[in-house]
Amino acid sequence: MVPVVAFLLVLFVYPVGQLLWLSFVDSAGELSLTHYARLFSTSTYVRVLGVTFEIAAWTTVISVVAGYPLAYLIATTRPGVRGVLILFVLVPFWTSFLVRTFAWLVLLGRNGAINNWMTSLGLTDGPLPLIYNRAGVLIGMVHALMPVAVLTMVAVMRTIDPAFSGAAGTLGARGSQAFWRIYLPLSMPGVAAGALLVFVLSLGFFITPALLGSGREILIAQVIIEQIEQMLNWGFGGAVSVLFLAATLAVLYLYEKVFGRPVALHAASSPASVAQRNGAFERLVSRVGHGLVIALSGVSGQIGRMLEHIRPISAARRQLPLSRLVLWFVGMVTLVFLAAPSLFVIPVSFSEAAYIQWPPIGFTLENYRLVLADSAYVGAMLRSLVVGLGSAALAMAIGVPAAFGLVRRDLPGKRAILAMALAPMILPHIVIAIALFFLYAKLGLVGTVLGLILGHACISVPFVIVTLMAVLSTYDERLDYAAWSLGANRWQALRRITLPIILPGIIAAFLFAFVISLDELSISLFISGGTRPTLPKQLWVDSMLRVSPVVTAVATVVLVFVTTVILIAEFTRRWAERRSKVQFPEAA
Amino acid sequence: MKKAGASKLSVRALRKEYGAVKALAGVDLELKEGEFITLLGPSGSGKSTMLMIIAGLARPDSGEVWIDGRLSTFLPPHKREIGVVFQNYALFPHLTVYENIAFPLRMRRRTRAQIDQEVARVLGIVQLPGMAHRYPRELSGGQQQRIALARCMVYQPPIILMDEPLGALDKKLRQQLQLEIRRLHQQFGISVLYVTHDQEEALAMSDRICLMNEGVIEQIGTPADLYFRPRSEFAADFLGESNLLNVDLLSTDGDVAHVRAADGSLLRAARNHAVADDRRIRLLVRPETLRLLAANESADNTLTGVVRDVILLGQVTKYFVTLHDGSEVSAAALTESGLPVRAPGTPVRLGFAADCAVCLPAR
Hints:
The structure holds 2 protein chains of 2 kinds.
Chain A: H1 2-22, H2 34-41, H3 43-76, H4 79-94, H5 97-108, H6 113-120, H7 134-157, H8 163-170, H9 175-203, H10 207-212, H11 220-231, H12 234-259, H13 280-310, H14 322-339, H15 345-349, H16 366-373, H17 375-408, H18 414-426, H19 429-443, H20 449-474, H21 478-485, H22 490-519, H23 522-527, H24 535-545, H25 549-580
Helix pairs in contact in A: 1-12, 1-17, 1-18, 1-19, 1-20, 2-12, 3-4, 3-7, 3-9, 3-14, 4-7, 4-25, 5-7, 7-9, 8-9, 9-12, 9-13, 11-12, 12-19, 16-25, 17-20, 17-22, 17-24, 18-20, 20-22, 21-22, 22-25
Chain B: E1 7-18, E2 21-32, E3 36-40, H1 47-55, E4 62-67, E5 70-71, E6 82-85, H2 97-107, H3 112-125, H4 141-153, E7 159-163, H5 171-188, E8 191-196, H6 199-205, E9 208-213, E10 216-221, H7 223-228, H8 233-238, E11 243-253, E12 256-261, E13 266-270, E14 280-285, E15 291-292, E16 301-312, E17 316-323, E18 328-334, E19 347-352, E20 357-361
Parallel strand pairs in B: 3-8, 3-9, 6-7, 7-8
Antiparallel strand pairs in B: 1-2, 1-4, 4-5, 9-10, 11-12, 11-14, 12-13, 14-20, 15-19, 16-17, 16-19, 17-18
Helix pairs in contact in B: 2-3, 2-4, 3-4
């Protein structure tokens, strides 16, 4: 437990605190609100803030509303089918934002696939402006963040006992009424947690607006990057970070108020303990929500009755429930939206065309040859691999003991430690990146591989802890007791019993940490320096100039590599869960 | 109590497979008005599957479900007018006790006044008035069970299905609630189909017991039928304790069967028409029908052996006796201070009446 606390104190809490402090200090070192005054006095920044919150809000609403049916489908389908469906959400979840943004350039660009199809089908006369506008930014961001919403909602929905819907049915509720009155209210903690995560992550976005926006959709993160990279204006960066932090804490607070439990714990327990609502505000929210749900239940009940006149229910024949068919259709459309776009990058990388266009022309390996001939790319790839392996190893070294401690021991301040360990997951990475940049600048770590390894470990540790805590919580500690009673000492029990059983979980956690580092852009952007970029940074720098077919070749390599690693990690993780879940005979 | 007779519920040739597992392999069952039938069997015998199909929460591969004379095989649950009490109660955690019980009434569009009145009425019946504004998690297991029962009874469904409703409670509470459920059943004349794997519960509560095994009905009848006249070794073994002796069936004479035990002694037993003459069969003798004979006592049948162990179980004392052929039987007698206690090693004679021994086909 000590290493993870020390590590995060030095590389997360201290630098972020430092950065926040700087925002309250002027150039002469006196306490002042200069930076905030500047932030709010210039109409540009106020406008940027407004746009940021607006786009984040839209992204959140669309991600949650459109993601809900898919999450519901995944949560309520057969286990085998669920495993497959969830894979199609996980792969885009882990695929780098950069690669997925390129995919939208291929799909929605002037010469992109969609314009090409629409023109050839005669639907439009010429190409429509599908990107370089707000719609493009929203599509890109929803695509990037919807998996987060879906996975969070599924986690909560799976804790809802299917018997509740069945019970509602036997008590006289039609399917739709059971959904609105029972299932939806029980799934609300998941919806809120998903919305919260998407919203907070949206606030820190810069890749998508930079590549898919018109230039009017500048988000606050882009302003920070500019201020720090070009002017080294720490105080201002700190002020914006404070804003991020305040917004994050505000929504976290709201969540805990409404649902009576911190968001980090939303999936850990069943929604059974949800109904506590105390304050006037919470009661109002619950009243309004309740009224809305009752109204929707009534309306859908009426529609159901009307549909029965058109398509009477047969007692003698097995009928496909219409609602389920609609759900499958909507779910599949969403899944295609999430999983398919990245695939469009692949054929373009083999195209002979000198710019990105659809359909690809001919077949050539020229783009790949150019990548291999470019020492900048080869160097960046090697650097990314070294940093990835190094940071994953470091994250494991401090994360594994921490996960054991958090699951097995009743430590004082356990909640505080857990909150600190998970904080880097929720705080926009860009804030961490700037804070580390400031720290590294003093320590001389900027542009070093060690600096990158430390920085990436900082953001992958929470994932290691979460993955291992999940595996460990399914591990039956009585196995250890048995080993001890059979004469094994603690170390022998750990080595011969515990570790072999959770080994796949450890491998999975390592691979996830590796992929996080491999895809990481925010931290690399600042601390890798000008001359020693990681692969994502090199891609980013190039794509800011022009998204060329060469870039799509690199993106394809990244896509295939990361997908492979993720599939291996996911299957190992599933294996781990199955294995550590020893079936004990039920007490009669 | 209403007059029993009319069929409330019947299932015909019900089949259901989960992959390679046959959950139900052609089952027929009829529940009469006001009757209490228990589906009894080990886990995986298909009893819960049958209940779920009747409730409309699972679909059969083939077969029919008739409810109140209406074909209902594929009807959705809300069209069936059946009450279900679930294994873990399935009380809606986000609704108060009042809202849980009001739920079925709201679905039936009752007025506010009616709902208030009905909820108060059933809370009275289950003896939990004053709990209306608690949440389920604030109640004890026994209280949750009663609320689940109240929610199910409030709209007065003519048929109630119960899926191991007492499975999560401790033994004392179970026995108390068994009696309570039975009282409610008799008082309101509801037809009940009850699932359990607990034989004592089945014996205590049912009008008839439907014993299931591997997706088929092994035997159906009154508790006394199943206990005293089991038709198979499975039935004999599942209900109560049993001594099963390997014997040869020699001849039958009216209702009496003559058999020869492994040690050669000739015994008389109740005839079982399902068992063919002249072959090796099994003879069931319940421990409590085996008596330790005093020197001057005689019985229809006698076996001889040596006491191996004596165990005092409270009301009952159990003797484990090794017979001359090496097989072991147990005999149970009410514990009385006057009873001569035979120490292990004592030779004994065991006696039992002819009509207490049941012939069973060898497995």
